[in-house]
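Sharing a chain and its predicted structure for anyone who wants a worked example. Both blocks are below, sequence first, tokens second.
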Amino acid sequence: MSNSVVKIGLSADLFNSHGDAVFGETPLAMLADAGLAWTKVPTQQGRLPSSAFTDYDALMIGGSRVAGQELADESGRLRIIARNGVGYDAVDTQELSRRGILLTNTPVAVRNSVATIALGFILALSLKLPLKTRMARENRWRERADHPGVGLPGRTLGIVGLGGIGKELVRLMQPFGMTILAADPHVSEESAAQAGARLMPLDDLLKLSDFVVVACLLNESTRRLLNAERLRLMKPSAYLVNVARGPIIDEPALIECLAQGRIAGAGLDVFEQEPPDPSNPLLTMDNVIPTPHCLCWTDSFSASVGRDAISGIIDVLNGRLPPFVVNAEAKAHARVQGWLGATPA
């Protein structure tokens, strides 16, 4: 494939309000060094235009939706969609596989940063940091002894989803002296034990944990996994942290639990609807720390994710299979086999 005719599209949601790439200039320089040019592809309400699927050889996307409707006029040119991140719940992987289009993500680059924000929520909630910040600003020093925090040593942390992020969180939590439990149907007891966690059924984990962190992928089996019935299993003194995807938790049920004091509080970087409705009670509750699905976006995180995503694009355009292919079955598609091994002209 001649680099002079290759077209790479980067979705507009990969750029900040100033027009700069969220992952910095270094990953973009990788494309220039490879002799590849790129253009920005506009998005509207989380969707790419139909031309994105007819005119490009490779796409790099943020949270854009890619499903049958978007792919209806796909021309057969597109080789790869590189997800700048790890979650791909907005992408129809089966339809991409049917068409012979690879989907990649960046699971390694996100692990430490997302696990770190889970740790950050745990610390902020245990120390009652938002409340005590307000107390200082409002000159409420006389109340200092009224709101003790929750010491972590001897407490129990439950992690829902013991993948790369969950295992990294186990590692980060080791110095805090907590008992660590995990629920994950895809992980063996031996693997969990090696990571430093005790595997158990989800319902038991919810009953026993003082802090629950959601770190699993969103799919049909995990959508509203933490429903009203399961949320009621949690201790009234327990805290819930979600660094995965909003729809994994039944949000109206969570709001009810928080409002009625059935759980102590929550740290939420994700919501069922994003951006959430400004009237969403989760945004104003005193026992909730809400952030706009960007808490892990540090300079090092963004650069690492961008490098991994762009490396995959370069591999594909040079006739190589990239790492981190989500829809592995697509590798055997005739369309993939047609370009695999081809060298640039």
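Comments welcome. The domain at 110-290 is CATH 3.40.50.720 (Rossmann fold).
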